[in-house]
Amino acid sequence: MMSAEIQKIRVVRYLRERPDWVVTRALRATIRVAKTAYANLGYPTVIPLHCLLWGGENSVPAGHYARITGDLLRPSTPISATPHVQLLKEYQAIGTEVFRPERFRETAYFKNGAQSIATLGRYFTYKREEDIVRVARQFVAQFQGKCLDAAPDDRCFSSPGTMIRVRPIKHSDCYEVLDGHHRLAIACMQGVQAQMAWVIPPSTLTPLQQLLFDQVFCHGKLEIYQPIDRPEIRKKSRLFRQCTDRLALIQEFLKEHGLLPPPTNGRTYLDVACSYGWFVRAFQQFGYDAMGVELDWAACEIGRLVYGLSTDIIRRSETVGFLRADSRQYDVTSCFSLLHHFVLGKAAISAEQMLQLLDKKTRVVLFMDMGEEHEEWYRTTLKGWNPTQIERWIKANSTFKQVYRLGQDYDDQGSFSGNYGRTLFACMR
Prior knowledge:
40% of the residues lie in helices and 16% in strands. It is α/β, with parallel strands linked by helices.
């Protein structure tokens, strides 16, 4: 057995040393043909419906179509939330009334078809918006198990028995639908849990995944700093911050000190180094006039995309420069997992100077945490920085006289075991 393996190694080495030899060229050509055949042919498999995501239109891939239209979350949308399923639900609720011209034009189904015509010049083979209803009627008839007489232009539609075609989405168990949205919508309405599909390589990234890879701190891994509830993100990405653990402690503290809910004239909130803006959105939901500041362009874009936070709410800026230039004060401020970078000398100013900038910005309470000496990755570089020392340091270098320890985060789990578990402080005067 060993001699056979050695012989294979020798053959491979022999061929590599003779790249222009006719046999080597023939083998390379054969391999290329095999790879092309694999990419074109694909393979069949059974896929749960919740793993199937909205694709593009008229053979344009989902990611490309999403960028053309500006709807970057389209490829992150499950089949159950597509306009196709929405139309069937509306038909079940109001019957043929859904096809009344004024009513039909308000459906997500019509708007999707109209966008395809405006973007690509057609929806299936139709080039006029008024013909979209013909596709919809054929679709509903198929849902009812009926068969309408097909017009010549309708013959391009796949038959009900045709296997759907999909493409794998990288770093997930999800697939982009290439062909079969209508059939899958019917299956979804019928309560089908899984569907046989033809999988066509190669795998692809959704625009949201690409943005996550574009983050400065990502380092080539699908890592998420704050929760994102999208199908291709949930299972196989690494979440740095639970966020809900800190928010529960913050919410309780705000209630105890009469800061929740805010009065009718509103209170203000600023999150420094806010990442995607998860806490900004949470404070908006509390009723605060909330905003955040973040340096990373990709993080700001993710916040706009997944949390609906505009550029006025998340300001893209270097934090020190923003705090120095911004003349406003905020009732509540927060600064999570940032100050230890200043302690480690990774910024233009000292940690004490940064704390003083946060102090000046805060009218009522500052919520903060930072790296501590118990964490594996800071065991030597942050030696001595424990909750007691941090509390003393805050009081010695700011006008905050009351420093409350609210609890610890729950991020010390999985691949982060031995790290995090940082104390959340509330600082008041």
